[in-house]
Amino acid sequence: MPKKEKKSIKRLKEKSEKNWLEIAGFILSIFALFFSFKSCSDSNRALDISLNQSMAFLQVTDAELIEPIDSASFIKIKLTIKNLGQTPARDIKIEFDHGIKIGDFETEGNSTTRKEIGSIGQGFEKTVVLTSNSRNFRMWNVNSRFPDILCFFGTIFYKDKINENIEKKVDWCYELKLDKVESLKTRKITQSDSNRFESKYSQPNQ
Predict the structure, then answer these.
(1) What is the CB-side half-sphere exposure of residue 173 using CA atoms within 13 A?
(2) What share of the chain is helix, strand, coil (3-state, %, to 5)?
């Protein structure tokens, strides 16, 4: 083979090897970028989880009527609110309403019943009594086949030191099935499904 052709073939081989090295380097850089992004994403997720675990979180853990609905002039309800989070909750306000509801529902709540209850430390609980602002006319319909469901519902507003300028909200709902006369004379109510009530607050009142 002529010397000139050998040199040409050698240059082609060198150029091909260089191209493959460049392609390999490009692929490695893509992998490095991917793993760098994944690592950053995992770190952000871990930070979000850590912050969420550090926040205050309020929940109504128990509720009962002060008087049965067939004798109360105004419906009163006693709630136990517990802070299940890791930091104190402050500037706590809670409101309450009631009514016959079918299925899941939304409402803006009843801000005229809103009550300030101060702060609750992490792991602690507080009991509060709320009163409806509408008179109870005791015109309840008891039906064993198609019973009405009387719902007692509202929203808790609060802040914590993680996000001091953001007011959080937690909806709560308990219910009483009007399927027998005895249900008008009881003080016991049961917690509703978590999706029973969702308030329409887009921005809680300050």
Answers:
(1) 22
(2) 30, 40, 35
- CA torsion angle for 51, 79, 125, 154 (degrees, to 10)? 20
Segments making up each domain of the chain, as ranges: 1-54, 58-199
Q: What is the pLDDT of residues 24-35, one digit of tens each?
A: 666 777 767 766
Whole-structure pTM over 0.90, yes or no?
no
Residue with tokens 């002529």: 2
Domain 58-199 has CATH 2.60.40.10: yes
pLDDT at site 29: 73
Q: Whole-angstrom Cα distance, residue 171 to residue 97?
A: 12
* Angular region, 181: left φ>0, alpha ψ -120 to 50, beta rest: alpha
pLDDT at 49: 44
- d(C-alpha 98, C-alpha 116), whole Å: 19
The pLDDT score that the predictor gives to residue 55 is 87
Q: What residue ranges of the chain have pLDDT lower than 50?
A: 42-43, 46-50, 202-206
